[in-house]
Amino acid sequence: MTKIISLTDVPALIGQEIGVSDWITVDQTMINQFADATLDQQFIHTDPERAAKESPFGETIAHGFLTLSLLSAMNYSALPKIREQTMGLNYGFDKIRFGSPVRVGRRVRGRFVLKEARYRGANMLMTSYDVTVEIENERKPAVTGTWLTIVQFDPKDRPEET
Does this model's pTM top 0.90? Predict the structure, then answer.
């Protein structure tokens, strides 16, 4: 069951890890579909036989951008829902790093630390999360960075600032 919080709860969560996602298996079908969608057909992603022979990884690997894009799904399984939210928007990322390749068949999950939350205008809360995408049973993460998002809400629901 997803935890539901209020806008008034958010400030107390700054600096805390507020979610760890479910594991997601990155299989060859997912990699191939991402390659088709992005037109990135590099053999290290899409050709298992050639990747086994010619790449330093010995098998296919996920695109870094595929791993990054999984943060959206990870968000849904990890982060509490804000009761007053009417819509959520991606705003961008700061300092994305791809630390380790995700080999085909591995599982990944996301960790989310709320770094900052501040109001912008009458109906938006800008949040930033330090995110880490872990690879199961590996020491080095696949992705690290800071993810900026916007929570939109009805202006009448904005808490009084103290």
Answer: yes
Quickly tell me which residue has 């009761």 as its tokens.
83
Distance of CA 144 to the CA centre of its chain: 9
Residue pLDDT, tens place only, 144-155: 999 999 999 999
- Structural domain containing residue 18: 4-157
Domains of the chain: total: 1
**Rg (the chain; Cα; Å):** 18
Report yes or no on 27 lying in a domain. Answer: yes
**Per the domain annotation, does 70 fall within a domain?**
yes
In a domain, 162, yes or no: no
What does the alpha-carbon distance between residue 97 and residue 54 come to, in Å, rounded to a whole number?
25
Question: Would residue 143 count as lying in a domain?
Answer: yes
Q: Write down the pLDDT at residue 160.
A: 83
Residue range 94-123, pLDDT digits in tens: 999 999 999 999 999 999 999 999 999 899
Instruction: Give, in order, the Cα–Cα distances in Å from 53 to each of 15, 43, 58, 62, 128.
Output: 45, 11, 7, 17, 41
